[in-house]
Structure formats: structure tokens, C-alpha cells
């Protein structure tokens, strides 16, 4: 079974970063309209992903999840 879903940077409105219990990982929440995806990344990659997304779409709101 394969499933693939793509969101363009223009569709993403928010990214929130959540710190995982394991410090090696970070959780990024991507929002598009009423939909949200919670994805887990290596901590070292998470900031690069956020930086790239903001470079592609400066209108994305980024914040730390509380």
C-alpha cells in the first residue's frame, strides 16, 4: 500500500514546532486550511525544514507549540 500527499508551500499557512520527549527528535505541525499534519523529524533537520519553508513562502506563520 502506498499513500502520497503533497502540499505546496503556497498552501501551508502555519508551522508549529513541538519538542518531543526524546531530544533527538522534533515534531512539526503543518497547517493547510482546516487540515493539519503532525510529522516527526530529527532535531537537526527540523530547523532546516522550517527555514526552507519560510524562504519559499514568507507568509507562513511559525511558532513554538506550547
Topology diagram in text:
Blueprint: E1 14-19, E2 25-32, E3 35-42, H1 43-56, E4 61-64
Parallel strand pairs: 1-4
Antiparallel strand pairs: 1-2, 2-3
Description of the molecule:
The protein has 66 residues and is α+β, with helices and mostly antiparallel strands. 21% of the residues lie in helices and 39% in strands. It is built from 1 helix and 4 strands; from the N terminus they run βββαβ. It has a 4-stranded mixed β-sheet with strand order 3-2-1-4. β1 and β2 form a beta hairpin. It is globular and about 30 Å long. The model has no long low-confidence stretch (mean pLDDT 95).
Question: What percent of the residues sit in helical stretches (DSSP H or I)?
Answer: 10-25%
Helix/strand/pairing category:
alpha+beta
* SSE ordering: EEEHE
Low-confidence sequence ranges: none
Biggest sheet: strand arrangement:
3-2-1-4
How many strand segments?
A: 4
Strand proportion: 35-45%
Distance between the termini: 35 Å
Largest sheet geometry: 4 strands, mixed
Radius of gyration: 12 Å
Shape: globular
Output mean pLDDT.
95
Number of helices: 1
Key terms:
66 residues, 4-stranded mixed β-sheet, 1 helix
Question: Quick gist of this model?
Answer:
The protein is α+β, with helices and mostly antiparallel strands. It has 1 helix and 4 strands, in the order βββαβ.
Amino acid at each position: 500500500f502506498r499513500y502520497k500527499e503533497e502540499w505546496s508551500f503556497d498552501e501551508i499557512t502555519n508551522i508549529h514546532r513541538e519538542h518531543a520527549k526524546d531530544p533527538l527528535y522534533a515534531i512539526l505541525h503543518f497547517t493547510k486550511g482546516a487540515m493539519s499534519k503532525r510529522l516527526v523529524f530529527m532535531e537537526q533537520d527540523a530547523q532546516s525544514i522550517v527555514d526552507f519553508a519560510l524562504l519559499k513562502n514568507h507568509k507562513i506563520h511559525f511558532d513554538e507549540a506550547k
